[in-house]
Design a protein that fits this description.
The chain has about 325 residues and is α/β, with parallel strands linked by helices. It has a domain of about 120 residues: D-Maltodextrin-Binding Protein, domain 2. The protein has 12 helices and 14 strands. A 6-stranded mixed beta sheet has the order 1-9-8-10-7-11. Strand 2, helix 2 and strand 3 form a beta-alpha-beta unit. The protein is globular.
Length: about 325
């Protein structure tokens, strides 16, 4: 197991222990709005010693919440592929939250980042974060939130979650936070008063586990990740049931800083776009359930912008 996979394993263990303490009613940090914050390791980093010609390492960030933990090794293979094609070593930077990744990119401390639709909208507005490519999964470059409950739960709609425990992923996640918050506000409700309590799990797969184990009654998760597990590891999701599917949103993209040299951007874009036509690249994509990478349109994220603006006005 490499350091990248080990880091994910440690994170999962810490979260499981933290969630068990929540279930037992322990003294996890709780603020006045009934939010339970599950504290994970503050930051995580790993460096992959890619066997590529010399030069300064290309730093690529992946937020812990962006993909299933089981795909860590596949992302490692993807970064090795990028390293070989670019002729530069790659350093993988792992962070717990989207905000940390956005901050690194804004300061130009990383070259490339895998982010969510929500953080892209925020980064675009703040410092001009730029779209590079986006993955296409299950035949579409879009995704949606799934509101889930335990398979044996009598809850069949959002109203059934009133007064219950709920799991968000990252505060800046589109499907894991923005969508459920927006959905409640359009109904004249707010998470702090609608739910009995809620936690941040910082990972969609951990939110699924929290529902499956009865730690919370409901959660909002990335539909792509739920579908991934339904295909590859159904034992995880078979204890959950979908009660609501949100509208479609622009899929989580791969982004760069706007001041990234044009030659670097074009080289990276070419590598990702042509990956599905290369046998080695296709094998890696298949393991990740990615059909191919495309060049996304900024307008694909307008619906996310509108949700964020609508919420900001009503805070």
């Amino acid at each position: 197991m490499n350091r990248y996979s080990s880091c994910h394993a440690v994170t999962h263990l810490v979260l499981c222990l933290a969630l068990l303490f929540v279930l037992a009613g322990s003294s996890c940090s709780r603020n006045e709005d009934k939010t339970v914050v599950v504290n994970l390791k503050d930051t995580m980093a790993t460096q992959r010693d890619a066997k590529a010609p010399g030069g300064s390492p290309m730093k690529i960030a992946i937020a812990a919440v962006v993909s299933p933990k089981e795909t860590a090794a596949y992302y490692d293979q993807m970064m090795a592929y990028v390293s070989k094609k670019m002729g530069r070593p790659v350093e993988i930077i792992q962070r717990k939250t989207y905000q940390e990744v956005n901050d690194l990119l804004e300061k130009k401390e990383i070259d490339l980042a895998f982010v969510c639709a929500g953080p892209y909208v925020v980064g675009k507005k703040k410092f001009g974060m730029e779209l590079l490519v986006a993955p296409m999964l299950y035949g579409k470059p879009f995704y949606q939130a799934y509101f889930i409950v335990h398979k044996d739960s009598p809850i069949n709609d959002l109203e059934g979650l009133r007064g219950k425990r709920f799991a968000f992923t990252d505060p800046n996640s589109n499907t894991g936070s923005l969508v459920p918050t927006y959905t409640l506000i359009t109904k004249g409700e707010k998470p702090a008063t609608f739910f009995k309590s809620f936690i941040y799990t910082y990972s969609h797969d951990n939110s699924i586990r929290a529902v499956a184990k009865g730690i919370v009654e409901g959660a909002s998760v990335d539909g792509l990740i739920w579908d991934y597990y339904n295909d590859r590891n159904p034992d995880l999701v078979k204890q959950t049931r979908i009660i609501y599917r949100s509208p479609l949103y622009g899929i989580p993209p791969v982004v760069v800083h706007p001041q990234t040299p044009s030659q670097v951007k074009e080289s990276l874009k070419k590598i990702f776009i042509e990956m599905d036509a290369d046998p080695e690249g296709k094998t890696i994509l298949t393991k990740l359930k990615i059909e191919k990478f495309i060049v996304p349109e900024d307008s694909s994220y307008d619906s996310v912008r509108k949700m964020q603006e609508w919420i900001d006005v009503r805070k």
